[in-house]
Amino acid sequence: MRKSIIFLFLLFIGFAAVAQDVAIEKIRELYKSTQELIDSAQSASDEPHGGLYCNEVVVNKHAAQWRAVGDFKKVIRFWYLDQPEFAEMENGSKESALRKVEISSKWSADNTENYELLFNNGELVFCFKKEASYDNKEKPIETRWYFDNGKLIRYMEGQEIIKEMPDAKEIHELSKSMMNLFFNTFN
Fold this sequence. Notes:
Blueprint: H1 2-43, E1 53-59, E2 65-66, E3 70-80, H2 84-91, E4 98-107, E5 111-120, E6 123-132, E7 141-148, E8 151-157, E9 160-161, H3 169-184
Antiparallel strand pairs: 1-3, 2-3, 3-4, 4-5, 5-6, 6-7, 7-8, 8-9
């Protein structure tokens, strides 16, 4: 009896690991196909948009000096499939329009922080963060968060998978604020 319980427990753990790997592979495929659409949209001069639209918000366009920060500039790009009101009519959710958000910040001489937020049907599925400063500009710090149904399923620092999952509340809040800003670009 005890061996059966142990066997079932190990079987359950194995299925959970496989399901997690499948979810991560789907996220990677979505990221790759989205990036291909973005590349196509950026290379299309007079041709169609490549399958995605882009709204851009620029903060401090000319990188003027900010008090206690120095030069500062932030660019946020929203890559989306359709206008939110049409996505809502077709898919039942205006959030399903947004596919990817790219946030690029640069301040003082050598500090940069970049985020990529990937969405699938209005849900955050992936976040990538890359930070560089004067001290680490040759080897920036990279962090990755993978989500499935709103739950963090994998966390990576560099190429290392970290077993102990951090609280992803800050990333969820960022994704919600970016979703709201995306909607406001249509007002």
